[in-house]
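cron nightly-structures :: item 1 of 1
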Amino acid sequence: MPVCGFDEWLETPQGQYVLRWEQARYDHLVADIFGFNAVQLGLPQHDFLRANRMPFRLYCNDLADDSSALQTRSNQLLTNPHYLPFANASMDLVILPHLLEFHETPHQILREVERVLVPEGSVIITGFNPFSLWGMRHRFTRLSRATPPWRGHYLSVRRLKDWFALLGLETHSGSFGCYAPPFSQENHLQRWHFIELAGNRWWPYGGATYIIQAIKRSHGMRLITPGWRERMLQARALAAVAPQPRPSPQGSQRQFSAEHPRTDSSSSACTLGKSRQT
C-alpha cells in the first residue's frame, strides 16, 4: 500500500532537499536513453521524465493512493503497479521513484516491470538507503506512529541487485546522495551542505537516497551457417596422391638384353667354334 502523506512531505524543506538531488540525477540518466515509450510509476506530480526525448511518455498513479483522484496531466493513468495495463515488451524506459519501499510485495512490481520492458530497455529506481543516518532513524522509529518518509520497508542496493540478477536485469549505473543528517529545518540542512562532497568521497555508500539503473538483457539466437569452405579445405588436405607404377624385375632384364644384343651373339658364336675344333 502506498504511504499516505508522502507528496506533502516532499513539499517540506527535508523533502525538497531529497527532491532536488533526485531530480538532477533523473535528468542526467534519462537524457541518454532513447526509444518510443516511457512510463513513470508513482509521483505523477513531479516530472522525472522532463529531460527524456521519447515521443510517448506516460505517468501512472496508484489506485490505492489518496491523491490518485487528482489528475494533473492529460497523459496520466490510474493503474495497479502489480498488474500494469501494458503489453509484453512495449516500454523502453520505466522509472520508479520511491515506489518499491512502500509496497508489501515489491518483487512482484519489479517482475511486472521486467515483463513490459523491451530487450535492452532500462528501469531506474530511487529509494532510501537503510545503511545511512536516515536509515538509522527509520530503524528506531515505530512504524505505527511514524510519519512519511519513515514508514515503509527500505530496500538496500544489494537486495535490488539480487532481484535484478534473478529477473535477467543487468545493473548499469547508480549513485548515492543526500549525506546530511535528517534535519527538518532549512537552515540546518544548508549548514551541512559541505558534507555532500566529503560524503561522496569518504563514505560513498552512506547517502540517504540512491538511484540505480538496470538494463534488460535478452540472449538471442545466433545463426550458424554451414562451413562449406572449411570442409573443402579439409577435403583438399586429405586428398590421396595416386602412386606412380614401379618397373618389374622381368622388364628390367628384357630391357638390358635388348640394349646389348651383340654380346649374346658373339658369345654364342665363340662357343660354336670351339665345339667344331674339338
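cron nightly-structures :: done
The domain at 6-216 is CATH 3.40.50.150 (Rossmann fold).
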